[in-house]
Specification:
Layout lengths: L14 H14 L10 H9 L18 H14 L1 H19 L3 H13 L4 E4 L15 E5 L5 E10 L7 E7 L5 E7 L5 E3 L14 E10 L4 E6 L15 H21 L6 H22 L6 H23 L9 H11 L7 H12 L4
Parallel strand pairs: 1-4
Antiparallel strand pairs: 2-3, 3-7, 4-5, 5-8, 6-7
Amino acid sequence: MHKTEHDVITSPDDVALDRLCQSLKEAADRRHGPDDWPADSLAACAAAGVFRWFLPESLGGLGWDDLKQTKGYLKLAAADLTTTFVITQFSGACRRIAGSENRVVGERWLAPLIAGDAFATVGISHLTTSRRHLENPVLGVAAEPDGGFRMNGAAPWVTGAAHADVIVVAGTMEDGRELLAAVPTDLPGVGCGGGAELVALSASCTDQVTLDDVLITAEMVLAGPIADVMRSGVGASTGGFQTSTLAIGLARSAVDYLFHESTRRDELVMVAERLAVQVDELEQRLLTAASGGPCDAGELRADANRLVMRTTQAAMTAAKGAGFVEGHPVGRWCREALFFLVWSCPQPVASAQLCELAGIAS
């Protein structure tokens, strides 16, 4: 990543975060495909201390609690969903590394990662929502007679794969146990795709990573082999609200656009105000959950999905033909809203969405 100067953000209410978000917003409009990896925006986030939000002070982080992190993510997502999505994958990898009982891997990677001198990401979707229906695991693990393991197969959805120095990868053994490892991308047998052309967020350079007889040594193992390694508590993400957070942040961008347009178009005032109330209410539910209050994560996710679709389509309707021209932010927001229909979308949420679209009571 390129180095850049930026004030360190001390809280989600810090004006430094607002300045960072403004720079991210301006850069977001210039990105289109996999060749537009947001290196400068990520560097700005690193310089502002964003990468330190997610780790305890004992490991060089800022020790932000769940509420502060959620408030920070809401602002980042409203400014630049692509960069924010990349950061979620980066922070997920960092938390897994930091939470491992294997201190060797943390000593190797955490300092350069939070400084922005290295990049980490995750290849774990095949153990959560992606390709769970397949009979055989897409990424297999076999124990070596003299210690260590061999990984063969592919991690199908890895964000920033071609730009990663280390990838937190999960694989499955023949007996069903699972292994989590921090795999350096310069190892023999690791192949990283340059980024798929997606409907939205192509600049996140999300692609498949293949592992061809890759040797995993003890120094790389984060957890396992054990059953359900993703539920082992090793750096697990809190509460499952992260995806909803980013959806609400994007919905906020759309509503802000409607308010801006309503200053010269009276017919938009009531629409903007009504949708703003709905975003405010859903955001408050999210913040209550982040504070430890009761919340059904699936219900919140379904509501966030519906809201981000409605707000972005309302913004497109207000923008008219101008919004349908490539390069207009409203068009990008509408495409980005579709991402929440597929990103880590649990089957109950997907089923509820399909029933609603079909007019079926779920």
